Amino acid sequence: MRLMPVLFVCYVIAYVDRQNVAIAKLQMQKDLPSFDDAVIGFGAGIFFLGYFLLEIPGSILVEKWSARKWICRIMISWGIVAALTAFVSQPWHFYTARFCLGLAEAGFFPGVIVYISHWFPAQDRGKALSIFLIASPFAQVLSPKISGYFLMFGASEKVGDVMVEYPLLMGLEGWQWVYIIWGLPAILMGFLVLKLMPDRPKDAKWLSTEERFALQSAIDQSSGSAAKRKDLSIFKAFRHPRVVLLTAIYFTAVTAAYSIEFFMPTILREWYKLSINEITWLIMLPPLLAVFGQLAVGWSTDRFGHRLWHVIILLTIAAVAFIVTPMTATVTATIAALMVAFCAMKSYLPAFWALPNLFFTSIAAAGSVGLINSVGNLGGFAGPAIFGYVSARTQNLSLALWIVAGFLSVAIALTFLVRHIVILEDKDDATPFVS
């Protein structure tokens, strides 16, 4: 109750600030004709190149220095850059803003994963991670209608037989306000993080001395109980087969995930010619289902273990749903298929992100989380860029969706390989907890 609400709100804002281009593009392309799907897709993805550069140092700083100070810096800088995106007018402006946004946000997500390991024993991390991770689908439920409201400033749409023109707000278009109104809360939350988030249990003034000792003892005791954790240097951890494979799994899964997240509004508009209002209502449904899916999986993985099986099953469901989506013929069927796919792709995350801290200790675990997230999130560059390119060049969204399913198939195969390695290497009775 002291920490997770703060982290939850921070991640909501982070996710909206990196994803709101999916909504803003519906009007940006009208005002900025050079911003076709290829430009939007490349700009959306270049965020992750900047993100890549500072991700590992950021996660290590959380482990060795201070989570609250580093996360405070991250949020203030990303809030400023996010708001300034409102004033782009050329593709290279957009690319620069998105790249800088990635630099600013780098280290936040892995920093929180490491921070949670400082506060929760291994057997409770799945639930804690699910509370944090549901912020992303929650953001996607919350933001479309708020962003859609501001998007109407300066827009025009046909209501019945009448063309309605909406006025500008303070001389700015609606898509500009989408960036501004979501950038400012990040700056405010940065200062709140500095005030409200102690780095470790020993720093928590709201715990008694006995409570601090008991909590730290439980965390220390769980360090080797769930699996055979390896005390490696950070560079040896980077070369470990488990880290390499987890990185590859996350890359292929993220490639698929961000493809559909950025282009779901476009799919609904192109296939069914829906209005902005209708689209913003419909795209709330998949993440709404994902909120419940992530909570259920967080509970299930802590209760039953078998985290890798959770990943395999959920990614398989997502791949099948993406294959089926182009075969649907109605809005209802399409959104139902997208709901299943989206829920499965979000719900595997609590199981997946519990793994690095089960495999490694301290600095190796922190560095591994940073490496997996930074390299894996390059899929956030590859996915929208590939999807946007295929869409722009072939005018075939179905083909793009099947490519997404192909990436998920690779992720599933790699997860089976990790499971095989775990079974071979871990001979103690904790293996079922992981595999």
End-to-end distance, in Å? 31 Å
H and E string: HHHHHHHHEEHHHHHHHHHHHHHH
- The general outline is globular
| Total DSSP helices | 22
How are the strands of the biggest sheet laid out side by side? 1-2
Mean pLDDT: 83
The largest sheet, given as strand count, sense and whether it forms a barrel, is: 2 strands, antiparallel
Number of strands: 2
Radius of gyration: 21 Å
How much strand? Answer: under 5%
* Helix-strand category: mainly alpha
Low-confidence stretches: none
- Helicity range: over 70%
Summary?
The chain has 435 residues and is an all-alpha fold. The protein has helices spanning 4-19, 21-31, 37-64, 67-84, 91-105, 108-119, 122-133, 135-151, 174-196, 209-221, 234-239, 241-272, 276-282, 285-304, 307-324, 331-347, 349-353, 356-359, 362-376, 379-394, 397-425, 431-434, and strands spanning 156-159, 162-165.
Describe what this molecule looks like in 3D.
With 435 residues, the protein is an all-alpha fold. 78% of the residues lie in helices and 2% in strands. It contains 22 helices and two strands. It has helices spanning 4-19, 21-31, 37-64, 67-84, 91-105, 108-119, 122-133, 135-151, 174-196, 209-221, 234-239, 241-272, 276-282, 285-304, 307-324, 331-347, 349-353, 356-359, 362-376, 379-394, 397-425, 431-434, and strands at 156-159, 162-165. Strands 1-2 form a two-stranded antiparallel ribbon. α3 (37-64) packs parallel to α5 (91-105), α3 (37-64) packs antiparallel against α20 (379-394) and α15 (307-324) runs antiparallel to α21 (397-425). The mean pLDDT is 83.
What is this structure's SSE topology?
Elements: H1 4-19, H2 21-31, H3 37-64, H4 67-84, H5 91-105, H6 108-119, H7 122-133, H8 135-151, E1 156-159, E2 162-165, H9 174-196, H10 209-221, H11 234-239, H12 241-272, H13 276-282, H14 285-304, H15 307-324, H16 331-347, H17 349-353, H18 356-359, H19 362-376, H20 379-394, H21 397-425, H22 431-434
Antiparallel strand pairs: 1-2
Helix pairs in contact: 1-4, 1-7, 1-8, 1-9, 2-9, 2-12, 3-4, 3-5, 3-6, 3-19, 3-20, 4-5, 4-6, 4-9, 6-19, 7-14, 8-9, 8-14, 12-16, 12-19, 12-20, 12-21, 14-16, 15-16, 15-21, 20-21
